[in-house]
Every structure is written in structure tokens, then in C-alpha cells.
Amino acid sequence: MTHARSERAALCDLLDQLGPGEPTLCEGWDTYDLAAHLALRERRPDAMPGIAVRALAGHTASVQRGLKAKHPFPALVALVRKPGGVYGLLPFLDTAVNTMEFFVHHEDVRRAQPGWEPRELPADFEDLIWKRLSAMAKMMLRRAPVGVVLHRRGGGGARSVVLGGAQQGPKVEVSGTASELLLFCFGRQAHSRAELSGDADAIERLRSARLGV
Q: Please, which domain of life does this record's source organism belong to (predicted)?
């Protein structure tokens, strides 16, 4: 099973366990909203542009509400559990597009619950996350008000480094496993176990910055 499929299955298991109306780290969304978002991504391509384009967000929000109205929560989770659209037809595309998406949203649900602890991910999954993060970091950190230096812990050998954020002024060192760094760069700073060092004001500005894609 691919990491995309295993994260999808684990997230759906957790959604079924928790039920609708439970918190997530996605601002303004509970578990029902998140399930509707994930179903929309794969089964309503007409509404996908509004995920990224603010001018089209109204249609996307309307479709998402419609999915909730049409499907009871267990049925909506069942839709998410099976890859839909092109992702069901092309497994390689599911891996390319959905591995990070489902990992992050799985953690969005896990880390919104009391008593959560980081998972120990397989080494090859951490390596894959670092590879994707290395390619995406500059885009994800483009709104960072200070320079950012990412240091990966684990993975064997010397620590790897990625630079991002503002090119001038103070820089903040952010250290952690690849998975914790990914969550930090995706805008989940408050719920990432990455460690920050540097100027105190710069750290505070980075913690409250709007990061991510």
C-alpha cells in the first residue's frame, strides 16, 4: 500500500471514530467540513479552482455545503475512503498529489484532539516528505516575514538544510523531523514539534505568519 493510500485509510478510520462536529486544525472547519472538502477535491472538479483562487471561493464553499447536505457524515467519509476521479484511475497521480494532502489533513484531525503525540513514521516516508518539502519550501515560506533555515533531523548522515522566507534581515533556524517541518511550513506552526532558534522577535513573527500553499 502506498503512503497516500495508508494516510487516506487512517484518516477515514479516525473520522469514523470521532464522528461529525469534532475540531480540526483547519480554521473554521470541523470533521464534517474536512470530509466534504476532501470529497470535493476528487469528485467535483468544477469546484476545485476555488480552493486556490479567492475569486472562485464562493462556488467552492457552496458545493462543499451541498455535499454535507446531500450526504450523511458516514457516507461522506466512505466517499473519501475510495480515491475518486482521476486519482482512482491513475494510482501514480494519487501518490504524486495526495500523499502530502492526506498526511497533513490526518494530522489536522489528530492534533486537534486532546492528548495527541507525534507519530513515528517509516523512514522512507520521512525521506519522501523531505524530498517534497525541499521542492516546495520556498513557495510555502514565501509570506514568511523573516528568513527561514530548515534543518532536518534524522534520516542519517549530515543534517539537510533548506532556505526560504525573506532574503534580508534576521533568520530563524527551524529544526525537526521532515514531517514536523512540513507541518510547520504548511501553517501548523502552533501544533508542530519543530524547534525554533534565533532572535526572539523574529521567532514570534514567524510563529504567527500565514504560511503554506
A: Bacteria
